[in-house]
Write a structure and sequence with these properties.
Mean pLDDT: 75
Shape: elongated
Order of helices and strands: HHHHHH
Largest sheet: none
Structural class: mainly alpha
Number of helices: 6
Number of strands: 0
Low-confidence stretches: 1-46
Distance between the termini: 21 Å
Length: 157
């Protein structure tokens, strides 16, 4: 019985590890366009606006609406935000096993699935692709902030 419980925890740990790897591999293609106001689609899929790095804002300003330059700005910011979230996931994964960690791992799996659903472009046109990339950047940035303040208490059930 104890072995079976250990195998279940290892399977969950493996699932969480695979989720962490998938977080780094899943990305909507990044293509952007210059718009001052988000489209209705963006408002429908975008989470709360995250606080992003000043370097990103400067990059977007310097791009002056050039799609390829905006795409590069988005790619760099998404990579940065992913690294922030991955660091927090790794920190929490290093913590002790317990019911709180199991619940958190389930939440992370749901978060990844929800991100893929919410941040999928509605079409392959530039606007929806920009909206999807913005959605991902915001989700990763907000997710990292939320995880940074989180501690998993193994003794709480």
């Amino acid at each position: 019985m104890r072995f079976r419980k250990h195998m279940t925890l290892n399977r969950r740990r493996w699932t969480a590890l695979m989720l962490c790897m998938a977080l780094g591999a899943c990305q909507a293609p990044s293509s952007t366009a210059s718009t001052d106001t988000p489209s209705n689609e963006a408002a429908a899929i975008a989470p709360a606006q995250a606080v992003l790095r000043p370097a990103y804002s400067q990059c977007v300003q310097d791009a002056r609406g050039m799609d390829d330059q905006l795409e590069a700005c988005d790619a760099r910011e998404l990579a940065y935000q992913r690294k922030q979230m991955e660091a927090e996931v790794a920190r929490l994964m290093d913590g002790p096993d317990g019911p709180a960690k199991d619940r958190w791992m389930d939440e992370q799996a749901n978060w990844a699935e929800d991100t893929d659903t919410r941040c999928s472009p509605a079409s392959d046109h530039v606007g929806p692709m920009l909206d999807a990339q913005s959605c991902r950047i915001n989700r990763y940035a907000n997710g990292a902030v939320e995880l940074r303040s989180r501690e998993l208490a193994p003794h709480l059930q």
